Amino acid sequence: MSTKNLFKEDIKIINIGSPSFKQDYEKQEVPYIHLDWAPPAQGNLMVLHQLNELRPYQKQIEEANIKAVEKIKSSEGRLIAVKQAFDVIPNMSKHTILHAGPPIEFKKMAGPMKGAIIGALIYEGLAKNEKEAIKLAESGAIEFDSAHHHDAVGPMAGIISASMPVHVIYDIVNRNYSYCTINEGLGKVLRYGANSEEVINRLKWIEKTFAPVLNEALLLSGGIDIKSLITQALHMGDECHNRNKASSALFLRDIAPFILRTKFSDQEKKEVFEFIQKNEHYFLNLSMPYCKVALDAAKGVKDSTVVIAMARNGVDFGIRLASSDRWYKAPANYVKGLMFPGFTEEDAAPDIGDSAITETFGIGGFAMGGAPAIVQFVGGVVEQAFDYSKKMHDITAGKHQVFTLPTLDFMPTALGIDIMKVLETGTLPIINTGMAHKEAGVGQVGAGLVNPPLACFEQALTDFVKQIKEDRT
Amino acid sequence: MKDAKVLKNSYYDSVTLMSTTVQIKKDLGLNDLVMFMGTDMNKDMIKSVGLYHESLDEAKPNDLMLAIDMQETIENWVDEVIQRLNSKKKTDTVKGEQKLTSIHQAKDVLDANIAVISVPGIYAAHEAFKALDDNMHVMMFSDNVSVEDEIKLKDYAIQKDLLVMGPDCGTAIINGKGLCFANQVKRGSIGLVAASGTGLQEVTVIIDRFGGGITQAIGVGGRDLSEAVGGKMMLKGLDALDEDEDTKVIVLISKPPHQTVLDKIKERLMHVTKPVVLCLLDAHLDEKIDQVTFVSTLTDAAIESLKLIGIKTPDLLAFDDQLKDQIKKNKQRFMPSQTKIKGLFCGGTLTAETLSILRPLVKKVTSNVAKKTDEKMKDPRISDGHNLVDLGDDIFTQGKPHPMIEPTIRIDRILQEAKNPETAVILLDFELGLGSHEDPVGITLSGIEDAKKIAAKENRALAFVGYVCGTEQDAQGLRKSENLLKNAGVIVAKTNAQAAVIAASLVSEVK
Q: What structural domains does chain A harbor?
């Protein structure tokens, strides 16, 4: 809009600041919009200064972000196999234990994570009981590491040990892999820190019976298109983080014929069917690694301010950028929402698990507007869910046209959280999530909504500014 | 009883806070109330009024700070205050208006071409960049923007062929629509660029009064012609008007710029194809450039530009018989002690013009807008001799609305001057038009009456000289406003410059 044109057009105004000018526009019949303004970056002048420091690089950052978003969108993740972690996950030893969130030492871990590790060590036969397991875990003989460092993700405690079978996702476009364990169902389960005999026995059954059957079925199927299942499930009221009813059913529908064609006994096939059929969250452990494999496609896109991981270990919340392999961490928030009967907010552990990878990808909390049934479960109202899904577009670099929300006129989901937009608007990503009991093994005590700490984004920005300036000198 | 409270994440713009504070104070019968967002500067301000409480330490810029001094304790005072504050906010929201929080979002809804920015200065540049990113012209009413940001913004705008009017720009008229403080003037063939708000208002009003009209009135902000900014927007505006087919005559208005900037402007003027009136207030240039007329008062800027479009004006400084008679009568009533002019202004440039006119007419006149040290008032709050006080000066407006919006803050000063035995003439300006108070004359009348009574007690009679900067089309009405003044015994001038001359002649024989 050149100055010359301005003098030939009717003026139209965006008013930022004093509302008292509005009456003057109205008097003169000037079309206007009065912004519902609040200080950018929540008034944090340090952040604002850093954002302004990036102005000279604006174009290259925008280009990098478009590139990152295109990479993520291009991902075609297929579930191709179920294998033991030791056999497929990179840099996995018999003494490696992977966990959710950013790296953390055993002593500092949250209750549910410690409980799950104890369970894993017993399951692996490395310890006979809890006491031995703790001793071993504290001895330094076990290599603990963030699952994210091994292309893997896990819900809640997110524990992966060498013998555990994992879903293997392969992206046929970007040719990368991701991994996630088999979802054990609700109640007393390892991911909430339970480690009783019942839990260990179930893990053994998954390893010995379930995994071989499913793996053979997958081989016969030639791979299951997870992206397509998510697309359909979003049109059926799932958001694929806390509601996986439709997606789990769709998965079972797709895999069933191939399970029937395997060489296993009817009894084994029946057990496998029942296990998937009874678990409404089966698909969570497929949507998560799909999101992971897609987001990892943007790994290493220089100058990008897009977030490719949000994860919590029950103590800290960490985020990672496409352009850096560092974690930006801050103490995790507590989830706010509905408590299951008999529990109070005091019982809950801080926000935990890798499942926020779904929000990082633009589903889960970001797609809540398309999943009205979940809204009550996390203690909200439908209108609010619509608002969240729309609002997330304010903080993302792009959108995913393949994933659409029918309730919002098939609005695409918001994709590619941009730390600059998060900080400028002060709008944080919305995550809907389950709450774990702070003590090991009690299980889920509620569900609700949570945000990442703003400090993660502030650290990421500081580091990004430093990096981009260094690159230019 | 004093108390304080912080409300987290409750942003209110300062105008809303300031405009409601007075009313809420009155409604609840409070000794004092301050409502500010939690910036460090605002905290200092609360400290300075003695209402600070350590509980305010934690307040952040997005938090609302309330500090109160109650005569009688009101238990739920926070609720009472917030309820009133929000009821004000609600009436501000037009029905069906969409809640949009960023310029970019708003631009999606309305393909706007101008962003008017009046947020606190520390955030204003950020928003202005966003507006320029979205290819919008910017009118920056906000002040306290750093000079570095002003330069970056203007360079970026020029690169994109956009205007950045401001920072600290109070007046613009684009395509006949007034922005912020502007008068309703006819459209015509005179285009203006000005580094001064009330200066621009005064010239456009006089042009309108004699049948001229304007194409565009572009404000550039008071700092545009500083050495650092280098007149970037004045030059850009000059080029734009030179290109604009509807503009036949161009008027540039500024206080005297830095020499390097003046050289740049003169250089550019050599190549301008249209006649230009260059009004450098309070400066006399011995220059000759074809097609350029140099003037040093706002009145002359209007007269010369009218002349260039073929409109002759009467002598705007001359006195008719009626005026002469009024002056004579007023003079006769002065006591021997009454020898001084007290100019109490709402308009900064009008103050400066008055200073320029009075300097040769009366002995030793001081002002808070003076550049020369010997003309500076020692303390603008204290009168001494002939004084011209710009009440829009930061020293008077910290945490308060500008006197053009809220002229009542001038009344206290009028009463103060009335008590001073040396006061002969009280010289007042009144700005009509958009942005200004809905009846600036009306609410000042009681102050004028009270001042007369105060003086009368000591057998003194004050002379009031008033000038109303406005047009008949302004909502407040020029004639109506002038009549209110005349009925109150105020001598009403035709222009701001004439008001100065009248004031001078009132004290002429007694100097």
A: 3-37 (no CATH), 57-71+298-471 (3.90.1700.10), 76-290 (3.90.1710.10)
